[in-house]
Amino acid sequence: MNVRDPAEMPVFDMEIDDQYDPVKWLREREKSKESEYKFVKTLRDQSELCRQRAKIHNGVDLAVPYGQTHQDGHGLEAFDWFAPFRIPEKIQHVLVYIHGGYWRALDLPESSHWATAVTDFGGIFVGLAYRLAPYQPIQTMPQRICHGLQTVFEHSHKKISQKTKNTPNIHMHLVGHSAGAQLIIESVVHAIQLSKQQPEQPQQQQKEEQGDYQWLNSVRSLILLSGIYDLRPIISTSINQALKLENLHQAWQISPLRLFAEPDTTIRIPTSIRWLIAWAQFDSPAIIGQSSQLINFMRDYYGNEGDKSECKSKSCDGRVDSFCVTNEDHFSSIEKLHGGLKQSNFFKKMLQFISVDSEDV
Asked: Which of 52, 209, 305, 320 could bridge across to 316 with cysteines, CB 3.0–4.6 Å?
């Protein structure tokens, strides 16, 4: 029997746990668990408003399955698909949102809260949910999300073809908040690995995952807000009760930061993909530090030195931009997306970043 070295086992650290508890860093709200419940209810109510509005012009497909859809409270493998009243013929921007919740909370009902803001600008919005930890191991979440993204791509292709009578020209933009940011990057990595290893996989696995990387060619940008890119600190927090990470090495193997801190030449993210790395001004220092660390490693990776101040837009070889969502915290930065340009400067930044303009629509 293997006996683990006690020194390698995760030890709870209250100070680190506080750094990764968004409630303790809220700007103006009561800093209690009640704030979490209100946040979830707000996202759910906003999402329902978007669904009801989209139903008026028959512009929504709800709970489109890509896997487990049993409503047991542990996460659906399904997505809501929202189309504008008129789908553009030249370019179809498809924004796929993957929620946060530290891999263990939120679900499909809370994932479509800013759909209307996107469709009002002629974009297609997708709120993609996933199975939650511990019922889905964090290590296999990217594999399932890859399958979800392939289903989104195929569904979008079919619907766009039907509505425009033209060959679709899909530009996919993946938007992730908090844990969702980590899942987006790891899903891209998994798709890259699938595309290279497919011929070498066992026949049964090939059948199960065949084509689950085709969506990757349509991705134009990764838009990441308040992401977790180094999971090593997480093993010392209460979050790890659901993730069940056993040691630093295990946490590092699913940390996107490793891609730039310890580059693997077999994993090359397509140069056609641009990055927007953002954080809220009133996120915790640890969350802000996660974004800063990723940006610095990416700057070194792309060999571009520049201004390292935190709240200024900057680029790494034109592929990476960064943005501080001023006057917002971990919750409000997401809630205000519902109001579009009127309420969210992050939404405005996103539109500028993906170049949605009158020529596209």
From this structure: 320
